[in-house]
Amino acid sequence: MTQMIKARAGKITEEMEMVALQEGVTPEFVRDGVAAGRIVIPKNKNRNRSKICGIGGGLDIKINGLMGTSSDRDDMEMEVRKIQAMEEEGASAFMDLSMGDHINEMRKLSLTMSNIAVGCVPVYQASVEAVEKRGLMVNMTSDDLFSVIEQQCEEGMDFMAVHSALNMDLLKILKKTGRTADIVSRGGSLMTGWMFHNDKENPLYAEFDRLLKILKATDTVLSIGDAIRPGANADSLDQSHLRGLMVAGELTKRALEAGVQVMVEGPGHVPLNHIPSAMLLQKRLCYDVPYYILGFLATDVAPGYDNITGAIGGAFAGMHGADFLCYLTPAEHLGLPTEEDVRIGVRTTKIAAQAANVLKHGTAWDRDLAMAKARVARNDEEQIRLAINQANLTAAFAKSPSHGCAVCRDTRCPADVAAEFFGLA
Amino acid sequence: MTQMIKARAGKITEEMEMVALQEGVTPEFVRDGVAAGRIVIPKNKNRNRSKICGIGGGLDIKINGLMGTSSDRDDMEMEVRKIQAMEEEGASAFMDLSMGDHINEMRKLSLTMSNIAVGCVPVYQASVEAVEKRGLMVNMTSDDLFSVIEQQCEEGMDFMAVHSALNMDLLKILKKTGRTADIVSRGGSLMTGWMFHNDKENPLYAEFDRLLKILKATDTVLSIGDAIRPGANADSLDQSHLRGLMVAGELTKRALEAGVQVMVEGPGHVPLNHIPSAMLLQKRLCYDVPYYILGFLATDVAPGYDNITGAIGGAFAGMHGADFLCYLTPAEHLGLPTEEDVRIGVRTTKIAAQAANVLKHGTAWDRDLAMAKARVARNDEEQIRLAINQANLTAAFAKSPSHGCAVCRDTRCPADVAAEFFGLA
């Protein structure tokens, strides 16, 4: 019984109650959202943890971080520190993208060292194992792939990016119509290579019912990977992007029918003026299930600052209905992120989420308002309590312990003098 | 003869030609924009410099930085380094906000050490001098204020924030209707104090023709200061905000009639869902003259990251027609910015401007597209050439000199393997 099936039976689970409490909504609202598929609660049956979050319509936007070993930097201790950093900074979930030498061990650490939702991308592990066992990634069998998925679900994975929304029809269209950056999804690229080499349909698409059955057994949330997402602003909303959404929609419907919790992943590179349409079409074509985006990156030319580029697009996407923002770090397009990059990534993405969440006039709005009042009252403690980064503000205030204006804390700010006459402050 | 008066006479000045060349538009387009007031070209008659920029409708969004001494940190050498940093990073203009002990000397340095447009806020200097000469800021006379304005214009100031859009009617309305953070504009607060203490109308409003005459003589662009701007999301688009815009509109019309180049300043704190209306009303009420904004800050709770908060709102405002973005640094709401803060501020604001500029499908779009192509081609040199921060990318690439995928530059990225089979890359 998944959360969705329980909700459809009218049951309010403990997890739904926890989500309702956090969000300031009724348990019935959460239940009805989960039943309809508008809300997902990533919580694997086999994994115990106390921090539960809901993602989707009517709830505050949540943030996902990323970590994982790779062949270029295979340091599990560093990755554990990243997990702790993400959780400390306020991520609601993270994905373990490990492709290093000890994927299973790293996953166990990810699941035991954290108290938030954990996701992964099974095709990563499957492709690494195919190279080990069969010499080449393209020698991977469909059974290899599903056996990895099953293992990961059984070990407690709360959600999983599966690149099912990729099929031969899509690739043929992409070949015919072309784009600037054909495929930038790593999982999508792997499966594309596999499909062309083997001249076979994508097993994650062809055997979608098999996938659903596995996910359902542990109530792992399906996150439909955006294999064919635009990787350049110039490719946004092109035919391939839209057709990819349509395939995701077709599969979303099947997941909903099967009682499997599902969300859909999105780009990537989307210019600001495309965002309203991109969001509308996604929600329309994918039955209003939660939308999980990477970015959107608002421009392509800011490597080193893609946390900011992503925050610009992410905030705007959030205003238009994005539910779950995957963070970007300053290392995006540069190399592998450090622990500090990870912290900056979560913080920046939190700002984007907050900018969209305030528009709902719930707790995020109250927090903004309380900050403004604390500034007017020149209440340093309250400002620190409300800040996105409390440590940073504490340090800054210690350096300039003035009770001057909250803008630049100048001790002899003439605005202070004037305020006396105004009699309003 | 101001640029505007020349444009109205059908003349295409050297400055208009330079703007046209930079922007890839015709000189006639620039001339007609200047004649109508949609475009300003800040260029004081008494100051020679080679870098000219146009600001306004149909042109790329420009960026303004800030610097200046204060009573808390009166270090002119540091401020000169900030000027150099801003210019290096690509600001089109900056404002000297000095309120330290050597305002005149600092201004001379600002004007001679830079090759971009310089602006200032005359009420700052006037209030410091009033304290020196007359004991209290509120003892400042109207003549004191206009004499500072005249001096600054004659010395070469290219544009000037003048807090004219503040009058007794506005303050009465603010007192009646209330808001969270009454007045957060420093200039607005100074003038409010002066008005209440002296029980007199704001001379910058009451003697507006006197102001126009001074500005016209040197073709200094009037930037109508937003004295009553919202300083909290909760105050955005309130009655005072809108009435402030209306007073700015009334004065804008008079400036246009007088042939004085004019732009209007704006907030500040504006939530994302207010931006389309805020921009539309500003342009509507202020005769489509350029809009110069500080922010907009999309949330109040991110002190230490207001460069990012401002980039989110700034990009969105840019999409809706903002023409000139004043940068925010990470020091906003914390203290006085360092040279490094200044660099980060310009870079972050450049990203916001680029995110909006790409939507025009001009040079900014071409740059985004070229970057995407360079990534596909794995052309490191070209990626560096196109990046917002070249030095940063050069350093990052030197650390991971891989020719792997442009996302994380993993040397053994399996996506590379797959790409061979795809045959598209």
Please explain how this structure is put together:
The structure is a homodimer of 425-residue chains. The first copy, chain A, is built from 19 helices and 10 strands. With 425 residues, the first copy, chain A, is of the alpha/beta class. The first copy, chain A, has 2 domains: 324 residues, Radical SAM ThiC family, central domain (TIM Barrel); 59 residues, no CATH class. In chain A, helix 5 links the parallel strand 4 and strand 5. In chain A, helix 4 runs parallel beside helix 15, helix 6 packs across helix 7 and helix 17 runs antiparallel to helix 18. The mean pLDDT of chain A is 93. The interface between A and B is large, with 109 and 108 residues. Chains A, B: It holds the Pfam family ThiC_Rad_SAM. Chains A, B: InterPro entries: Cbl-dep_enz_cat, ThiC/Bza_core_dom, ThiC/BzaA/B. Chains A, B: Keywords: 4Fe-4S, Iron, Iron-sulfur, Lyase, Metal-binding, S-adenosyl-L-methionine, Zinc.
